[in-house]
Structure formats: structure tokens, C-alpha cells
Design goal:
alpha+beta, 8-stranded mixed sheet, 15 helices, 10-stranded mixed sheet, Jelly Rolls, alpha-L-rhamnosidase, Immunoglobulin-like, 1087 residues, Maltose phosphorylase, domain 3, single chain
Length: 1087
């Protein structure tokens, strides 16, 4: 354990993110006040607005001016006003609990603010003063509370799909390279027919495809040579294709020659469009397109001369539509400008407003304004949930935005996750019409209340957001913005009456987690010009959010903004890894001059920004990256004396920040951005050090358990878009157990266990039934096979499955214990032990070889304590080390094995090798990514090859937190911080110096307060300063030969106040300490 004493570090990892209130150090409480109560939280949040109706859970922190202080009792009061107890009083409760304390009063009322406070008694019987008041406020709790509010949108916004049944489509096009496809009867980009002219073979063909839920099949191939076409002739000239779509038959005429008649009944209606794919150099140009309905009506007629693109992709150039790369350019409602909605209203005359709240939600995403000013600071509301089951509502305090007398409220809508592209680039997963629902409650000082709700009295118009898609980007035409549209006095006579859509009010639930907000702003550090008029800016950090640009242009001109995570060798953007996501914003100038543009309804993952179409290059100060993410409180820091390790902690943190955006995603940049269950299952222990995940992961777990299959298994992604990854496998669906368990261990939060326990049991029963009577689980898998993205070092499926089976049983036993289910806990505990014995018998040879001989197999066997025979542990360890030696102690593990790699080495006393692997800078290693310029974690170890070439383009994210799971080991061993009991009620402080480190430090704002360590190792002297929160105890491990070699505060440690010697263990003296700050020193004679 002791390792090499050489280094130190502490890195503040989440600059710009909201930070938990810093608790008073135990020695810093006000003089004469031995116990103080502070940092009150409700449902793990500070003064939340708009919570749900479930009994809230309270928490608080304590400060004391003496060491080893503990709480003996508490009293909570809840009232309708500050200092009141007219709703509920707990009375004096003899308990040391200060987290996970449930409200016990009458049911909460809708739209109501509650104040609460707490006082505590310490172990000496002294009582604190009452805390300062905190509050929480309920949202609209029941569907009936929304009475009078309708879901509204712009008239005509509902789908035009019914008009697109039988039609004739005539398109003039040029085949520029490879192949060019055209959609027919495509209701969206994941379904429909696609006829492709292809010149990649010796003879030209018309390839007829059918796409169902994103999967293409070739239904027919027509050789075009007999009709007089050659590859050369098809590439040389413009051509005219006509499709006659009638009933179940599609007739295709190319340059006047009927080349195909095809009959199929799969799709009865759908739009036209165009398609290319980057893999084969496909490229085409559309010069004009005319579509006439069977009744003679014109459905589409464009020659692109106006510069406006009626399709969802492609670029307008020289009065034509250029389609290249991986592009699905579909006509349809996706290209209609996004709606604006407004309502003029007046406050009641002669009355003074006491408070005003807006309760709102949307199908899609929305932003509100009152009297020209933004409402709230969150973005992309209402966030992503399984909209089939629940849609979140938000509560806003708008008191200060109201005028006396005339007012106006406005709303901008966009497709968001509701109707925009989700997952693998498929749009309209939930619906095709963005809509708003809202109620405003204005309370007056005389006790009266006025309500304003969305209904037929609202007005609607098309707005400046011509296109808005989370994956593809935003097009903002400033010419279309009505000046003053959300202000009182605006003339909306030309606006239409808002239309109503089907109500989803029954699905509304108040938002329970932190919203997505701006958390930081980065400024460009460098500008290059890889081509004339093309300006590329480097922010110096891969991030997630949008750009904020000050641009100069002329009226009607379009500025084009593209993004990338990395650059090609020639300095241009590398975007192939974005796959079908366009990741492009456009701004159309209304007037000539300078403007500042910041997209509102898209989201990108990027480090580099490319700007074209402007009169002059913006200055560096005019190019900013606005960081977005779920605004979780920062809790942990880690610093070392090694700059590479500090950068690694930063990379892990930035990947967490970028992928915690409404849900925990896998990657924020390409056409995926899904809630992969395996990624967060593996990363959750690290995330719980970096930020307070309680509300965020509890919110997401609601959708996880709602998505559970009838057999107890889970999909691979949550929320689950239709037809995308509905099945799962080992290490992924286990999230049903792992995430609630890790949240409970980190925060002492039993509510997440109570909420999920029935679903956890159902999932475990599914796993149990998958295993045989021999207790070996064969590695249930569908989409996933093996240790995801390992480097040619596969692990036996049975090893993976049985290892998780044993671990799940262990976690279920602890969960059942925590919830008082003693019978189930006993069953799970015995089963876990039995599975471990079965694992040893089946997969561990007498010489210590784990079946399959993979790094991950050994890491799981040791890291999960699966070797039931103690005599075999050493042999397995020897085989593990020998396996690592074959690669020069470089890792070959994938997603599943990597989190366990270093813990397994620590388990066998080889912290020295753990540091060796951690500190490598050559391929493959964590340091290699940093040497290659990475500022976030990569999806693959070989996202950039040693020769500088990029990894496989189909799956190559540069912002993917899975391999950042090493942060858990770093916080425990470099920072020295780990929990012995849930919520760090008892903690372990045991830094393990190693490698070249001479100093290290870690801090963690636990639910009880600040837990920290700071150590140095110089000239054979080891110094360790620790801080332990009030009402907790810690075991402190000080590397030393004897306890007598350790001092605390200049005196023998075992005689210091608040310190008790426990034992010698693995070359360290172990002491128990209560709350306070302690300074331990071990001298040279301790070695």
C-alpha cells in the first residue's frame, strides 16, 4: 500500500459550475457558538421552486468550534412564513441523522411556498440556535391544477403528411460523384423509400431501397445500361427524373425513359428528399424540384433562386441545392419556421402584486419572455424524459418582470427532443408539432389571485428560428424577428389565433432536478484561416453548449458557423465523426452592420468554431463558447504534483459536464447523444466525487424503471427512441442496480433505493433466471458483446455475466439491509457468496489463470473479490501481473474492465504498478490522450492513432466519459477519500503516495460537510492534514512503521484530542478521529 513517496496535487475541477455552499470549518464557527446549523437542503437542492407533491426530504450541515462533535437530536419546523411552525413540527427527535430526513406533515398544496428551519443538540446536550430559514415551493401537482390551460401552437403547424399520398415529383439534378439518392413517401428520415442512382460499379444502376426504423434494405437493382446510360454519361450532364407515386406503385422515368415500375405497400404517404453518405464520396446537386398532388395541387415548387432551402439538409449555392457527406435532406414540417406565441394582459387595477409565478412546459423546447425580458435562466426546457410517460413542468418567479397595468408574455418554440432528431438522426420520435402549455399565477397583497393561461386568446406567428434542431443546428433569420413582439403595446393584429393540439396535461410532473443552464463562458485563444474567408477559432477546451459571436455582415447575407472537436492536419474542421449530424448554425443579417448571435435551440460538442460568410474575421474577444449542462453543484477537487494527472482530472470533469445535459449521455457531438445505461453505470462512482448527482440521477432513474421490460430487463438507452437499442447486455442493464446503489453509498439517500427497489428486484430476478443451476450467468447479451471497445483482448462472456451476477447480489443484499428487508438481504448475501464460489470453480484454474486470460477477466476477479479461495488470490494476482507485463504494463481493457484495473492492482498490494499504468504517456494510456491534445476523455483508446490518423469514423467521439471512471481510484488513492458508511457518516482517509508524486490533496463536500486531505512527502517526512465534518468520524491511515512515529499537532498522535489509535495495517498507523482539522506527521524513523 505504501508505494513510493514522491508527489502532491489538488485541482479544482469544475470552474464555472454552481458550487455547494462552503461549510464552516469545525474550528471556524462563531466564537461562543459551539454548534451551528447551516446549508439547509430540500430534496438535495437549495430553496427549490416547483417541487412535486411527494413528502420532501430535508438535510443540513453542522459547524462546531470543538473537535469530535456529534449530533444527538434535532427539531424541524415548517410553516407558511419565516420562523413559523403552523404546518408541521417534528418535535425534538433523538437522532444523529441530518440527511435523508423526511417531512412528516400534512400533504403539500399546489403552488405554495413553505418555509422551514432546524436546530440541533450536540453530544454534550448543548442546543444550537435555530438555523436561518430555508424554503421550498411546490409546482402544480395535479392535472386538475392545469385546468384552463390548453396546449397551443401556430395554426397550420400540424403535419402536412396527409397531403403527400399520391403525387408526381420531377427533379432536375446533377450526379457529381458516386451516388445520389432520393426519398419518396418518407414520413421522416428513418422511414420511407430511397431510390439511388449509383455509378460506383462497372455499370450504372438504380438501386431501390426501403428504410424501416432506420434500417435500409435493397429491394431491387435496375441495370441502367440497357436504357442507354453509362457511368460517364450520368456524371457528365444534368438529368431529369420523374416519380409517379400512385397507390402501391412507383414508376420511375429517367431522362424520358421508363426504367422502373415497383409495387410495395409499406408506406402510403411521405415526403420527397435527397440523400448522400460520406463513406463512398456520394455527392449530388439539385437544380429544381416540382411536386404535384393527384388533385393537381402544387405540393412543392422550388428552384432555390430565393436562397431559401425547403429541405432539412444540404447547402444552397449558385441557385441550387448541394448535397454531400452524410446528409438526409427531407422536405416537410421540419423546415417550417418555429412558432412564436404571445398574449397581452393587464394586472388588476389598483392592486399591488405580491408575487407572480409562471408554470410552463412544452412539446419540444421553449423559451419565455415577459415584457421583452427573458424568463428564467435555464435552456432547453423542459428537458428530455420519456415523453410517452411524463413531461416535466417548470416554475419561474416572474414577480420582478411584471409592470403595473399592461404586460405581455411571449414564447418561442422549437422541435427539441420531441420532434427534432434524436439518437441516430431520426426525427419526430414523439410527435411533429411543438406546443406550449402555461399558467401564470399573479398573487396580490390583498390576497386575491389572477390566472393567465394558454388558450385560444393567444396569438401566433412564424418567428426568426427558421430551423432548429439539437443535432443539425439552428438557422436564425433576423429579418423575420418582429421587433418588440413580447412587449406590451405590440401590434399583433396580423398574427393568427393560436391553435390547440391534443392535451398531454395528464403526463405533466414538476421538474425534480437541476435544469440545463449556462455554467461558464470560454473565450477564443487563437484564430487561423485555412482557406480564403474561412476563419477557424480555437477555444482551447472541448466543451458542450453553443457559441456567442459578434459578427459583421450585410443585409440578407448568411453567416455560416460550423463546429468540430478536432482539426484535420491542414487546419480544417474534422467532422466525419459527427456522422449524420450537421452541427451547423446560420445567421441571416437583417441589416448591414454588427450583431451578436447566440443560438438558443440547438446544442453542440466542440472546441473549434469555423465562421464563413462574414465581411471580416471576428476578433478573438468576439468569439466565445457558452458552456451548457445540467447545473449540478460541484463537490470534489483533486490536485497532484503531476501536471498530466491534473489535466486528466480536468478531462474527466469536462466530459462529465458535457454529458450531463438533462440526461447522462454518451457523447454530445455526433448523431447519438443517448442515455447509454452502461456508460453511467460504470462512471457513477467517479461522477459522485465531482458533482452532487442525487437529483440528476434520481430523476433519470425514473425513466429507467419506467422503461423496464416485462421480463425485468432494460433497454440499452434511456429514454429509448423507437427502434433504437431496445435490448441490452451485461454491464448495461445492470444500471438498474448499480446507479441507485452508488447514489445511496455516496449520499446516504435511501429514497432512491425505496423508489427503485421493486424494479431492482425484478431486474435481479431476470438475471437470476438467466443463470443456470450452477450459478453461472452466461453473459446475457444482444446488442453488446464482450468488454466494449477493448483492444484485442476479449473476455469470456460467462466471466462477465457471472461477475456481474455476484456483484449485483452483493449490492442487492446491502440495499435490502438499508431498507429493512432482512429476509431478502439474507438471501442475496448467501447467493452472492455462492456465486463467488461458483465463479472460482468454473473460471479460476489452480495456477491462478482466469478463463480467457484477459486483463478485464483478472481485473474483475480481483476488483470484485470473486476469488473465493484465499489461497488462490495471490496466484491470480501473479497471473494478472504477468498478463500486464506482456504489454509493458499498458492497458487493453474496454468500458467494463477499465474501472476495475487499478483497484485490482491495489487489492493485491501493487499500487506501484497502478501508478505505472496511470502515469504512462504512450499508447495506449490515459496520458496518451493528453499528449495528443485531448481536453476531454475519448471514446476509444485509439481515437487518434500514434501516426496521427483518426480512429474508425463510425464511432469516434472525443468527449466520452467512460474511461474517466479511473477517477474513482484517483480520488480514493491520491485524494485518499472513501466512504466506510453511506453518506460518509464514517469515512476512510488513506492517501497512497506513488509514482513520482510528492504531494496530493483531495476535497469532497459530502452531505455532512467538507471532508479533505492534503499530504506531502519530502525528505522522508510524510505530512497529512485532514478535515472531517461535524457528526462524522474517519479512519485516518498514516504511512508509518509504528504508531509512536506519528504526531498530531506536535504531540504523539494517540494522545491528541479527538484522536484514537486503532491498529497497524499495511504499513500504516490507523487512527480514528472525530470532526475537526488534524495535522499528522510521520518522520524518517517510521520507514
Amino acid at each position: 500500500m505504501l508505494g513510493l513517496l514522491t508527489g502532491f496535487v489538488v485541482l479544482a475541477v469544475l470552474g464555472g459550475v454552481t458550487v455547494l455552499p462552503t461549510p464552516l470549518s469545525p474550528a471556524a464557527a462563531a466564537a461562543g457558538v459551539p454548534l451551528a446549523v447551516r446549508a439547509l437542503s430540500t430534496n438535495s437542492r437549495t430553496n427549490p421552486l416547483g417541487i412535486g407533491g411527494e413528502a420532501p426530504v430535508f438535510g443540513w450541515q453542522l459547524a462546531s468550534d470543538r473537535r469530535a462533535t456529534a449530533q444527538q437530536a434535532y427539531e424541524i419546523q415548517v410553516g407558511r412564513g419565516p420562523g413559523a411552525a403552523d404546518v408541521w413540527s417534528s418535535g425534538k427527535v433523538r437522532s444523529g441523522r441530518q440527511v435523508d430526513v423526511e417531512y412528516g406533515g400534512p400533504p403539500l398544496k399546489s403552488a405554495t411556498r413553505y418555509h422551514w428551519r432546524v436546530r440541533a443538540w450536540d453530544d454534550k446536550g448543548a442546543v444550537s440556535r435555530w438555523s436561518a430559514d430555508a424554503y421550498f415551493e411546490t409546482g402544480l401537482l395535479d392535472a386538475g391544477d392545469w385546468d384552463g390551460a390548453q396546449w397551443i401552437t401556430r395554426p397550420g403547424a400540424p403535419s402536412e403528411l396527409d397531403q403527400w399520398t399520391d403525387y408526381a415529383a420531377t427533379v432536375r439534378f446533377t450526379l457529381d460523384s458516386g451516388a445520389f439518392g432520393m426519398f419518396l413517401r418518407a414520413p421522416d428520415t428513418a422511414n420511407g423509400y430511397m431510390w439511388q442512382v449509383n455509378v460506383t460499379a462497372a455499370s450504372p444502376t438504380l438501386r431501390l431501397h426501403k428504410q424501416v426504423k432506420g434500417t435500409y434494405s435493397v429491394v431491387k437493382e435496375v441495370d441502367l445500361a440497357p436504357y442507354g446510360f453509362t457511368n460517364a454519361s450520368l456524371l457528365a450532364d444534368r438529368h431529369t427524373v420523374r416519380y409517379d407515386v400512385a397507390g402501391d406503385t412507383i414508376r420511375t422515368t429517367l431522362d424520358g425513359r421508363l426504367v422502373s415500375t415497383f409495387t410495395d405497400s409499406t408506406f402510403a404517404k411521405g415526403y420527397i428528399g435527397f440523400r448522400t453518405h460520406a463513406c463512398c464520396g456520394e455527392r449530388g446537386t439539385v437544380h429544381d424540384a416540382v411536386v404535384t398532388g393527384a388533385d393537381g395541387s402544387t405540393l412543392l415548387d422550388t428552384d432555390f433562386a430565393s436562397g431559401r432551402n425547403p429541405f432539412s439538409g444540404g447547402d444552397i449555392a449558385n441557385s441550387a441545392l448541394a448535397v454531400s457527406g452524410t446528409t438526409d435532406a427531407l422536405y416537410g414540417p421540419d423546415v417550417r419556421p418555429m412558432p412564436l406565441l404571445r398574449k397581452a394582459f393587464a394586472t388588476e387595477p389598483g392592486k399591488k402584486v405580491a408575487s407572480a409565478r409562471v408554470y410552463a412546459s412544452a412539446l419540444g423546447v421553449y423559451a419565455l419572455e415577459i415584457n421583452g425580458r427573458p424568463v428564467g435562466d435555464q435552456v432547453l426546457a423542459p428537458g428530455w424524459t420519456d415523453y410517452h410517460r411524463r413531461i416535466q413542468s417548470q416554475t419561474y418567479d416572474v414577480t420582478k418582470l411584471l409592470n403595473r397595468g399592461d404586460n405581455a408574455i411571449g414564447a418561442s418554440l422549437a422541435n427539441g427532443w420531441w420532434a427534432g432528431k434524436v439518437g441516430l438522426g431520426w426525427s419526430r420520435q414523439y410527435g411533429d408539432t411543438p406546443a406550449l402549455v402555461a399558467k401564470m399565477r399573479v398573487a396580490y397583497t390583498d390576497g386575491s389571485v389572477q390566472w393567465i393561461a394558454t388558450d385560444g386568446s393567444w396569438k401566433a406567428a412564424e418567428g426568426p428560428y427558421v430551423k432548429a434542431d439539437l443535432q443539425d443546428g439552428e438557422t436564425y433569420d433576423a429579418r423575420l424577428k418582429p421587433a418588440g413582439w413580447s412587449r406590451a403595446g405590440f401590434d399583433d393584429a396580423g398574427w393568427e389565433t393560436a391553435a390547440t393540439v391534443e392535451s398531454r396535461t395528464a403526463r405533466l410532473v414538476p421538474q425534480s432536478d437541476e435544469p440545463v443552464r449556462e455554467t461558464q463562458v470560454l473565450r477564443a485563444r487563437k484564430m487561423t484561416e485555412p482557406g480564403s474567408g474561412t476563419y477557424v477559432y480555437d477555444l482551447g477546451q472541448n466543451m458542450v453548449g453553443v457559441s456567442r459571436l459578434t459578427l459583421t455582415g450585410s443585409s440578407g447575407r448568411t453567416a455560416k458557423i460550423r463546429y468540430a472537436e478536432v482539426l484535420n492536419k491542414d487546419g480544417t474542421l474534422y467532422t466525419d465523426n459527427f456522422r449524420s449530424a450537421k452541427v451547423t448554425d446560420r445567421y441571416v443579417f437583417a441589416d448591414s452592420g454588427t450583431v451578436t448571435y447566440e443560438p438558443a435551440f440547438t446544442q453542440h460538442g466542440f472546441r473549434y468554431i469555423e465562421i464563413t460568410g462574414v465581411d471580416s474575421p471576428p476578433a478573438l474577444t468576439d468569439v466565445q463558447g457558452v458552456v451548457w449542462g445540467s447545473d449540478l453543484p460541484s463537490t470534489g477537487t483533486l490536485e497532484t504534483s503531476d501536471g498530466m494527472l491534473d489535466q486528466l482530472v480536468s478531462n474527466i470533469s469536462w466530459s462529465q459536464r458535457g454529458n450531463f445535459l438533462s440526461i447522462p449521455t454518451d457523447t454530445p457531438a455526433r448523431d447519438e447523444r443517448l442515455g447509454w445505461t452502461g456508460d453511467i453505470s460504470l462512471f457513477a462512482p467517479t461522477a459522485n466525487y465531482l458533482v452532487d448527482t442525487r437529483a440528476f440521477l434520481s430523476h433519470w432513474m425514473t425513466d429507467v424503471r419506467n422503461s423496464q421490460h416485462a421480463n425485468g430487463d432494460l433497454p440499452a438507452v434511456v429514454p429509448t427512441p423507437q427502434g433504437q437499442f431496445a435490448e441490452s447486455g451485461v454491464g448495461w442493464s445492470d444500471v438498474m442496480i448499480t446507479v441507485p446503489y452508488h447514489v445511496w453509498r455516496s449520499y446516504g439517500d435511501t429514497r432512491i433505493l425505496r423508489d427503485n427497489y421493486p424494479a431492482m428486484r425484478r431486474f435481479f430476478q431476470f438475471v437470476r433466471e438467466s443463470a443456470g443451476a450452477d450459478l453461472l450467468e452466461p453473459g446475457r447479451t444482444t446488442f453488446f458483446t464482450n468488454d466494449w471497445l477493448h483492444l484485442d483482448d476479449p473476455t469470456e462472456q460467462g466471466v462477465l455475466g457471472t461477475a456481474y451476477y455476484a456483484e449485483n447480489a452483493r449490492m442487492m443484499a446491502e440495499t435490502a439491509d438499508a431498507l429493512g428487508d432482512e429476509s431478502a438481504a439474507s438471501d442475496y448475501r448467501k447467493l452472492s457468496a455462492d456465486i463467488r464460489h461458483a465463479f472460482t470453480r468454473a473460471y479460476v484454474s489452480a495456477d491462478g489463470t482466469v478463463q480467457g486470460n484477459s486483463q478485464t477477466g483478472y481485473a474483475m476477479a480481483l476488483g470484485m473479490d470473486l476469488v473465493a479461495d484465499p489461497a488462490l488470490v495471490g496466484k491470480v494476482g501473479e497471473r494478472f501481473v504477468a498478463k500486464l507485463a506482456l504489454t509493458g504494463y499498458h492497458l487493453r481493457t474496454g468500458f467494463i474492465g477499465t474501472p476495475l484495473l487499478l483497484p485490482a492492482l491495489s487489492r493485491i498490494g501493487r499500487d506501484d504498478l497502478a501508478y505505472t499504468m496511470l502515469l504512462h504517456k504512450d499508447y495506449p494510456s490515459w496520458g496518451y490522450e493528453i499528449e495528443k491534445g485531448g481536453t476531454t476523455m475519448w471514446e476509444r483508446w485509439n481515437s487518434i492513432m500514434p501516426d496521427g490518423e483518426f480512429g474508425p469514423v463510425d464511432m469516434n467521439s472525443f468527449n466520452h466519459y467512460a474511461y474517466g471512471a479511473v477517477g474513482d481510484w484517483m480520488f480514493q488513492n491520491i485524494g485518499g477519500l472513501s466512504a466506510l458508511e453511506p453518506g460518509y457518516k464514517r469515512s476512510r482517509i488513506a492517501p497512497v503516495p506513488g509514482g513520482s508524486l510528492t504531494r496530493g490533496s483531495g476535497s469532497l463536500h459530502t452531505v455532512h460537510g467538507l471532508l479533505s486531505s492534503r499530504w506531502t512527502s519530502r525528505n522522508s517526512v510524510f505530512s497529512l492534514r485532514v478535515t472531517v465534518p461535524v457528526n462524522t468520524v474517519a479512519e485516518v491511515h498514516v504511512p508509518a512503521g509504528t504508531r509512536r512515529a506519528v504526531t498530531e499537532g506536535g504531540r504523539p498522535a494517540d494522545r491528541a484530542a479527538g484522536v484514537r489509535f486503532l491498529r497497524m495495517e499495511d504499513g500504516a498507523a490507523v487512527f480514528q478521529v472525530g470532526s475537526g482539522t488534524y495535522d499528522f506527521v510521520a518522520g524518517a524513523d517510521s520507514r
